[in-house]
Amino acid sequence: MNRESFAAGERLVSPAYVRQGREARSSHEHLIRLLLEKGKCPEDGWDESTLELFLHELAIMDSNNFLGNCGVGEREGRVASALVARRHYRFIHGIGRSGDIAAVQPKAAGSSLLNKITNSLVLDVIKLAGVHTVANCFVVPVATGMSLTLCFLTLRHRRPKAKYIIWPRIDQKSCFKSMITAGFEPVVIENVLEGDELRTDLKAVEAKVQELGPDHILCIHSTTSCFAPRVPDRLEELAVICANYGIPHIVNNAYGVQSSKCMHLIQQGARVGRIDAFVQSLDKNFMVPVGGAIIAGFNDSFIQEISKMYPGRASASPSLDVLMTLLSLGSNGYKKLLKERKEMFAYLSSELKKLSEAYSERLLHTPHNPLSLAVTLKTLDEHRDKAVTQLGSMLFTRQVSGARVVPLGSVQTVSGYTFRGFMSHANNYPCAYLNAAAAIGMKMQDVDLFIKRLDKCLKIVRKEQNKESDVSRVDNYDKTEDVDIGELASKLDNVLFDTYQDASS
């Protein structure tokens, strides 16, 4: 309602009451005006009524919501299901145009404004999280792997002779397939074991650069967030190598926004060397549905070049989801989540350490990994290979999601490349282990329930191992030897008694 509408309302209802209502609406509009003027995440989160008012005001700026609109084109924002229209707040046109995902659509001013505001808020949050000198970013409606592919395809035009991408190994399929999909040959650099940690082999990286020649290398593709015992790559040193040899540097920062350590590495890498773009997931960092990512960088023109590489228009859903989330949380709410995540990481580490020691295992020492932890499974692996994978199955059937059990000697072929010791980021890691991560949104009750169920599963696996060990001792008896029958009977009695005691307990 505008001023004239309120004035007309005063002829029907007491002017004092109407003025009060007008002032209440003005408080909502004030928040919206500040957002549009500053383009930054509000300190305090909005209530739902303000958020819905804002989204409604934007939606009615799109032509498909015009009263009396007459559309005669092939794409006029028509939706058959009213439920689908409500699900998308009637933003039907998507974002971008055929030549640029960041371009403004003439018949969708509201959706275009939504896209611009979302990118501005996300840029503000990336700075808040630790990368203070980031120049530009945009939300892309594909997940991390395809976003990396988009970066590589953009670099192809700048480096026509390039054939290879140097990639310090991380056993995760999407980032590997992103290079294959873009048409390049990954050059896998094996990690080096330092204590329990798997770290970047800088000498091997530089040797490979010299061997292949800088002009034939598209970029170095590094990683921050990862599963322990692998730790974030040595980004500063890699950035210096890239700067010295004139090679682009793309960073897979999948779930690193929630980690001040990962963000600091990116900031420092850009300060001392070269980082062209870093890519992060929306769902892992902002707790929204899967389907979007953020491509960010320190050179505004290069990030714009990537956005123009995206073919056609795109879905507005990921942008809408993250916009609603950030406006609901506010910067204070997001900072609170980051603080709680750090606390949960320390708590998870403490609880896993106590539990592992109770079973003669240990928490691997991986101080350079701020997100993921790993516990050895040596006592399980010593008895039989299946015990390790059995533990993973038991956790899954008991509704423990996200935990990864990594056995020794697993072999996996991905897009024609064979990896030995797959999932462990190395050909021959010394032991089997179990992973758990403290990600944004985790609560203390999640940790407590996980520890309780893990404890129960370990007890069951240990009991089964003891039973099999007892049966094995009987099966391995060599019948060709002369043995006193009474002695044998005594041994069998002892085995049966032990088994009974285990079942009773």
UniProtKB/TrEMBL annotation:
**GO cellular component terms, semicolon-separated:** cytoplasm; nucleus
Q: Name one GO biological process term.
A: conversion of seryl-tRNAsec to selenocys-tRNAsec
Q: Which InterPro entries match?
A: Peroxidases_heam-ligand_BS (IPR019793), PyrdxlP-dep_Trfase (IPR015424), PyrdxlP-dep_Trfase_major (IPR015421), Sec-tRNA_Se_transferase (IPR019872), SepSecS/SepCysS (IPR008829)
Which residues make up the binding site for tRNA? 271, 398, 463
Name the catalysed reactions: O-phospho-L-seryl-tRNA(Sec) + selenophosphate + H2O = L-selenocysteinyl-tRNA(Sec) + 2 phosphate
Involved pathway(s): Aminoacyl-tRNA biosynthesis; selenocysteinyl-tRNA(Sec) biosynthesis; selenocysteinyl-tRNA(Sec) from L-seryl-tRNA(Sec) (archaeal/eukaryal route): step 2/2
Q: Which cofactors must be present for this protein to function? A: pyridoxal 5'-phosphate
- Localization (cell): Cytoplasm
- Give one Pfam family: SepSecS
**Residues that bind substrate, according to the entry?**
97-98, 105, 313
Q: What is its EC number?
A: 2.9.1.2
PANTHER family recorded for this chain? Answer: O-PHOSPHOSERYL-TRNA(SEC) SELENIUM TRANSFERASE, SOLUBLE LIVER ANTIGEN/LIVER PANCREAS ANTIGEN
Described function: Converts O-phosphoseryl-tRNA(Sec) to selenocysteinyl-tRNA(Sec) required for selenoprotein biosynthesis.
Output this protein's name. Answer: O-phosphoseryl-tRNA(Sec) selenium transferase
What species was this sequence derived from? Loxodonta africana (African elephant)
Source gene?
SEPSECS
